[in-house]
Automatic annotation (TrEMBL):
It comes from the Bacteria. A motif (Histidine triad motif) lies at residues 99-103. The active site is at H101 (tele-amp-histidine intermediate). InterPro entries: Histidine_triad_CS, Histidine_triad_HIT, HIT-like, HIT-like_sf. This is HIT-like protein. PROSITE patterns: HIT_1, HIT_2. Gene3D superfamilies: HIT-like. Its EC number is 3.-.-.-. One of its GO terms (molecular function) is hydrolase activity. Residues 6-115 form the HIT domain. Keywords: Hydrolase.
Length: 115
């Protein structure tokens, strides 16, 4: 059987995390090593390793990422000041966990994207 990655373990509550939202398609929880005052990860409930593995079948799931990101941003009170949504893909994109996820970062000015 395939070994579960850390996000899969969080989704099925095998390991703990500060889960803010969960439905049939996605789960959102606080990043354990926040890079901004608000740093939340939104992840797919089923394993999609990277953005390269996304297909037409995932349209509803990926649409929901943005809807839930906007809802969480409002709840965290960062919607007016603004925030950044990031998806890292593979090694050059800085992806560490190979389970599709979006970072929601805010709570301070993040400045331009610096490479
Ligand atoms: P990425 O580099 O895009 O793959 O991002 C992976 C993110 O997962 C990093 O920001 C980590 O801090 C975060 N992370 C790793 N393990 C955990 C965990 N157990 N709970 C919450 N966030 C985690």
């Amino acid at each position: 059987m395939e070994k579960k990655n850390i996000f899969s373990k969080i989704i099925c509550r095998e390991i703990s995390a500060d889960i803010l939202y969960q439905d049939d398609l996605i789960t959102a929880f606080r990043d354990i090593n926040p890079k901004a005052p608000t740093h939340i990860l939104i992840v797919t409930n089923t394993l999609i390793p990277t953005n390269n593995d996304v297909t037409e079948n995932d349209e509803t799931t990926l649409g929901r990422f943005f809807i839930v990101a906007a809802k969480i941003a409002r709840k965290e009170n960062i919607d007016k000041t603004g925030y950044r949504l990031i998806v890292n893909c593979n090694h050059h994109g800085g992806q560490e966990i190979y389970h599709f996820h979006m970072h929601l970062l805010g709570g301070k000015p993040l400045g331009p994207i610096i490479i």
